[in-house]
Amino acid sequence: MTTATRPDVRSGARGPDKFAARREELARATLVTLAELGYARTSLREIAQNSAFSHGVLHYYFRDKLDLIAEAVRIYEAMCVTRYDEAVATATTADELRREFSSMFVATLQTDSSLHRLWYDLRNQTRYEASLRDEVSEIEARRTDMIWNVVSRYCELRGAPAALSRELVYLTLDGIFQQGLDDLLDGTDPEMDRARTLLDEAFDSI
Amino acid sequence: MTTATRPDVRSGARGPDKFAARREELARATLVTLAELGYARTSLREIAQNSAFSHGVLHYYFRDKLDLIAEAVRIYEAMCVTRYDEAVATATTADELRREFSSMFVATLQTDSSLHRLWYDLRNQTRYEASLRDEVSEIEARRTDMIWNVVSRYCELRGAPAALSRELVYLTLDGIFQQGLDDLLDGTDPEMDRARTLLDEAFDSI
DNA sequence: GATTTTTCAGGACAGTCGTCAAGAGATGCC
DNA sequence: GGCATCTCTTGACGACTGTCCTGAAAAATC
Q1: CA A36 to CA A39: how far, in whole Å?
Q2: What is the value of pTM for the model shown?
């Protein structure tokens, strides 16, 4: 559905998916540009400059701009939702899980802040345009799962059931995440002390 | 600082502030347009169409587009932060305050959803551009105060201190607000049942 | 090696944007 | 009435956008 009209379906010789590979390459360049500039300021020419090609080629591999961006969002989705799985699997005590989660929480905020900024930008975008609504709410559902995995395992290790619902937990941690991102972006609190404190408080109340 | 270069300072004849009045009129038209279209899609010509004037006049009253938008944001700020004051003042029991707050919470979400959408859009905007950062964080501080006023009064009436910090309370309620807005905008849950449930849960955990 | 097909570059297009300038009305003052 | 100032409209400008088209380069096929 979302692929550009492939020049020839049989694809003849080797590499049935050279086409698909280049599509992904361009979608990755798109994701980089989106993270840097945000949705509204990302143009096709700018995307092309973050790739090895010229702007005209984008319409050879993608139907239109939205098709391209949707593909980039799919790549983002695949990247972003398995972050804490290992910590959940390996931690043996509640405190250990909590400490590991917190430090990864802060670390990804610092390392991939542009990407997380993009996430909130995209979610904001869907409030004005329905185009990416499905992709975005799919990602939100996965994020909720991801957080709940951590928290429910934390409660299991602790031996006490969670005091808060799955949705409220996600909402709260996401709020801390968002505010931590803001503190980072405007230079306040580059060490994320506030986010750490809030995170501790949130865990205590769970 | 932010006013356009006034044609004549002494202003000669009557009405020392006909100029200021028209500025506000245009800023209000800007706010309407922003709420409708969002920051990225709001153009000067569109703003002018939501007013009684043509697009050229905007540069007569405002230095540039940003000056105009900043003025609109100031109007928004003045509107948006006294919403629950009356409920705080008149409520005599904790349950009454809680009920009043919840119903106002839901009501403003339904009535002014475009305006609240704009707020999140603006906050998102400051993650890419520093221009409105001061105005936005001023508003965020006021929102935090507004929420804390309610919650601390609620705890006072209840006779027990708050279990959560001022910041975490704001973060959580704002998250519920945001998710309620999303439910409203994409047609899920137009009655805000989910938001009501989350709000109850949040109050219980305070 | 010749021919066909795939891949890519670059320019042209129609549209939109913020900004500015020239001038027409409107309004006040003498 | 005549003049000066304020207010507003209109049109133009350069820059930028997504899309499309033409043709060249590259690759695959025979």
Answers
A1: 9
A2: 0.92
